[in-house]
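Internal ticket - ligand job 420, cytidine-5'-triphosphate:
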Amino acid sequence: MKKQILLIVSGGIAAYKSLELVRILRRHDIAVRAVMTKSAAEFVTPLSLGVMTEDHVYGDMFNLKDEREIGHIQLSRQADLIVICPATANLIAKMNAGIADDLATTILLATDKPVLAVPAMNVRMWNHNATQRNIKQLREDSVMVMTPDSGAMACGEFGPGRLPEPSEITQQICTQLGVKFDATLCQGQSPTTQSNVQETITNNQALAGKHILITAGPTREAIDPVRYIANRSSGKQGFAIADAAAKMGAKVTLIAGPVSLPTPSGVERIDVESALEMQSAVNDALPADCAIMVAAVADWRAANNAEQKIKKDGDAIAPLQLIENPDILAELSQHKERPKLLIGFAAETENVLEHARTKLSRKGCDWIIANDVSTTNGQGVMGGDHNDVHIITADGEDNIDHATKERVAQTIMEKIANVL
Ligand code: CTP
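stdout (structure tokens):
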């Protein structure tokens, strides 16, 4: 028999995402009946929710017609699972206290069905002792409470409190109902463009007015007109960071070594080849609020860059003399226009954390982001799409395990936005 959900939508900015959730649930052949709190109707109309559920949307406890036709007790009896999405701090508090002052809270107090709450709220509300106490108690009372996502919020702050993706919520619901989850059913156009608008608003606010300077890619050190010294850096992580910073409203200057990646939208890109060119482009781009040195700068360059192609000379091997390149990051830490937040990357193949900590102090930067470039799941990090990184600061360490370079970039930029 077809499984049925009773979806309670309470009044938060994430309420519009309930529309997409309904769409995905119904594609999984799960029937959805919806109840809205009064404040939810300020964020999403009963009409749009009714269009998505193809059913009447219940809202008013004292609606005699609804009560006569189905009744609040019946509503919960017919469901296999009650899902509260989004669950606001207010609804969570009322539920924990056993308050029943509208249809949604009355159903929650009257039901004997399993309940899944999907919280979404401002980070401070989420972190507040009262909310955490309520959630702890609800979990002890066997209410399933999903952990919110971390990220940019509608109010311009960052941290935990965002509604998890509708696909993730669906997966959780499918597990509860014993329905097979199908990720392909989660794709396609969202029923509302509000999510895109929302994302643009939140992203644009976080780093507005800040200048972020980023270096990315390898450098190429000429030996003669046809030969050079280089390394395997693809530039992908640096470009992903530039993209994430621009999406959060920052003015971004991206100083790129020789890579063939497209320029992220809204980013000012300056192409360079050698470490010396990168050094002067960095100095020209100052002042900046934050510099993130992702580039794999060549440590050495040829002492003499031959004007003509060096020819083979019998059996003798051409001598190649190297001299050290300037350390752009270390210099920047001593610069009179030192950015407020200076971040280096440390690509290591062994003793990753130990080497990275040494670099943090040797180079005088505020954070070092260390990554193990030996191998990841058998695939090299350099040139790959995933990364495992450790963000090392004076206060400790954060780890981001095997995530896409875009996800790593977003997490790093959120952490930066919190301190700038
Ligand atoms: N860096 C720099 N200028 C250099 C060398 C490195 O700005 N000449 C920066 C990199 O962009 C990175 C950090 O310093 O942010 C660490 O780079 P890495 O190559 O890991 O360290 P090195 O100083 O080159 O040390 P080693 O080669 O011994 O690991």
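Auto-summary: Residues 111 and 230 are 66 Å apart (CA to CA). The domain at 4-194 is CATH 3.40.50.1950 (Rossmann fold).
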